[in-house]
From TrEMBL:
<dbReference type="GO" id="GO:0008473">
    <property type="term" value="F:ornithine cyclodeaminase activity"/>
</dbReference>
<keyword id="KW-0456">Lyase</keyword>
<dbReference type="Pfam" id="PF02423">
    <property type="entry name" value="OCD_Mu_crystall"/>
</dbReference>
<dbReference type="InterPro" id="IPR003462">
    <property type="entry name" value="ODC_Mu_crystall"/>
</dbReference>
<protein>
    <submittedName>
        <fullName>Ornithine cyclodeaminase ArcB</fullName>
        <ecNumber>4.3.1.12</ecNumber>
    </submittedName>
</protein>
<dbReference type="InterPro" id="IPR036291">
    <property type="entry name" value="NAD(P)-bd_dom_sf"/>
</dbReference>
<dbReference type="InterPro" id="IPR023401">
    <property type="entry name" value="ODC_N"/>
</dbReference>
Amino acid sequence: MTQPSDKALVPFVSVDNMMRLIHHVGIDTVMKDLATYIEEDFKRWELFDKTPRVASHSDVGVIELMPTSDGEAYGFKYVNGHPKNTSEGLQTVTAFGLLADVYTGYPVLLTEMTILTALRTAATSAMVAKHLAPKGATTMAMIGNGAQSEFQSLAMQAICGLKSVRLYDVDPAATAKCAANLKNSGLDVVACKTPEEAIEGAQILTTCTADKQCATILTDNMVGSGVHINAIGGDCPGKTELAPGILTRSDVFVEFPPQTRVEGEIQQMPEDFEVTELWQVILGQKPGRRDDKQITLFDSVGFAIEDFSALRYIRDRIKDTDFFLELDMLADPDDPRDLFGMVQRAKG
């Protein structure tokens, strides 16, 4: 199977085929490729339609749609975030996404995005760290050892040259899981009993917890000068991980301010709190890391353009492969005006 043999058929990448694709390409290469696609699209930032994600909140979680377009392709992701799901044997985050041709409006790709979101989130973190982390950083504290932790560690290794990861989670079983999964990665993996122990000697501090609450994973006195903080756990209203004092001492970098001010760490701060947009750093319009004393903070909430980049990558990568199925999603009557006639013919 190569490309769909009929214009009414849409390529669909299932969970099984996504896993096959990752093993075929290699996870390090996938991370590097995704980071390249994401950085390319950040450089085209001003071409995109941009809107904060459309969110439906409940007491137990959130369901979101994340749309964007560069004028030629349109993409969206459906994603949920339900921290309580883990206790019920379910994933905290699940997702799927679609890419369409703007000229016809026809879908050109439907894909699982639970795995792909984990990959693109990690690739984004590492792409940003490449611009903001201290030069020569080799050690990361990974605070929160859930579903995202291995991806974050491997992306930092592939893209930034990370050599050591120090793990901490309130649940020792989560740390043991992460350590076991990274055993043969080439990383020096250290399981820690406290967050304070985890950050010892780390130049990159990644926080990724799931509880939907305003928590203080890092207190102000835990963060010394010169580090890069990769804050990816605060991603909806009422959910934060950092003490406000850390934000006031840091240079804060964000994806899309109107979304981050509602969902990110900076929801704790005044509306005029100063932030820098990452696309401006990537294009050299604004400074990133200036010196070895500066604290840089990526207030990551995830933005639709990153998903668009991931969808573009999968569309391109599955060409001339068998890593997709063909779905009969689109009506294709002989006469485009005679949809009813097409339905009637099915009676026979």
